[in-house]
Specification:
2,3-Dihydroxybiphenyl 1,2-Dioxygenase, domain 1; alpha/beta; four-stranded mixed β-sheet
Length: about 150
């Protein structure tokens, strides 16, 4: 078996509103959507950069629910951008909630974290230095053993 691609598939309370938000926040462009006669969106695809992200409305009758219905998310999307500060500001201006301000991280990125209006968490980061996995581990260990 050869895996050709992997796509994140987000479940949201309103795909139409989510597409509009992701356009304002991340410059997403809609590829297409499939809408039921009732108006529910069964499937949509957007491009964020060159990455396809799939979306659908919630379908509770099939156990398909978004983070807001479940009380949180266990999934985070990381967008590697050219400027994390600008991406963060744009997401906040579009209606995201700030979870972590942009700051330099031990793993060589300047990153931040926001929650979109649909409950999904987005990490926004850009590289500030090349760090080997060994150095990352050393820094991580030091950070986790330092008394706060």
């Amino acid at each position: 078996m050869k895996i050709l691609e992997a796509f994140p598939y987000l479940r949201v309370s309103s795909t139409t509103e989510a597409i509009e938000f992701y356009g304002r926040a991340f410059g997403a462009v809609e590829k297409f959507r499939l809408t039921e006669p009732s108006g529910r969106v069964g499937h949509a695809e957007i491009l964020i950069g060159e990455t396809v992200v799939m979306l659908s409305d919630e379908f509770p009758e099939y156990g398909i629910r978004g983070p807001l219905s479940l009380g949180g998310t266990t999934f985070g999307m990381h967008l590697h951008v050219d400027n994390a500060d600008e991406a963060h500001a744009r997401a906040i201006a579009a209606g995201a909630t700030e979870l972590m301000i942009p700051s330099d991280q031990f793993y060589g990125e300047r990153s931040s974290k926001v929650r979109d209006p649909f409950g999904h968490e987005w990490l926004l980061g850009h590289e500030i230095e090349k760090v080997t996995p060994e150095e990352m581990q050393r820094r991580y260990t030091a950070m986790m053993t330092t008394d706060c």
